[in-house]
Design a protein that fits this description.
This protein has one helix at 16-23; strands at 28-32, 54-58, 62-71, 82-89, 94-100, 115-122, 128-134. It is mainly beta and 136 residues long. The chain has a single domain, classed as OB fold (Dihydrolipoamide Acetyltransferase, E2P). The strands form 2 sheets. It has a 5-stranded mixed beta barrel with strand order 3-4-5-7-6. A two-stranded antiparallel sheet has the order 1-2. The longest helix has 8 residues, at 16-23. The protein is globular. The structure holds zinc ion. Residues 32, 34-35, 37, 46, 48-49, 51 line the site of zinc ion.
Length: 136
């Protein structure tokens, strides 16, 4: 963990259930109890129906690539080239990630719709950060 040199998110009361699960290697997502839709990122109000009845559940940790981009300039904490992507979560909504299991020098090999699975990297004792990896 000492070698994790990227910015580390700061959990807050709204996102704490996500970080607690991540530390256990589980992907927890918020879902509205009124309209049953999953939303990402964590909020106190459902973005679809404005209900405040939000519950957390353990998601499958599976998804597919919605879209991606090869980053060739250094504007964030990662050294280029690397691939950023939006992941269509199996349970609904999307999560942004730095994609793993792909070759940024061979973008033709990366496919929209390809299956991905979440993995967690310990950044500190309390914060394990989700990344998505192409599988299969
Ligand atoms: Zn709702």
């Amino acid at each position: 963990m000492a070698d994790y040199d990227k910015p580390i998110p700061e959990p807050d009361p709204v996102s704490q259930p996500f970080w607690d699960a991540a530390k256990d290697g589980r992907l927890a997502l918020p879902r509205c109890s009124d309209c049953n839709r999953v939303h990402w990122y964590p909020r106190t109000i459902c973005p679809f129906c404005h209900s405040t009845a939000i519950e957390w559940f353990d998601a499958s940790g599976k998804g597919t690539i919605h879209t991606f981009a090869v980053q060739t300039r250094k504007w964030g904490p990662w050294d280029p080239p690397y691939v950023t992507a939006y992941i269509d979560l199996a349970e609904g909504d999307r999560m942004q990630t730095v994609l793993r299991g792909v070759d940024p020098d061979d973008p033709e090999s990366i496919r929209i719709g390809a299956p991905v699975e979440v993995e967690f990297e310990p950044a500190s004792d309390d914060v394990h950060i989700p990344f998505w990896r192409v599988v299969g």
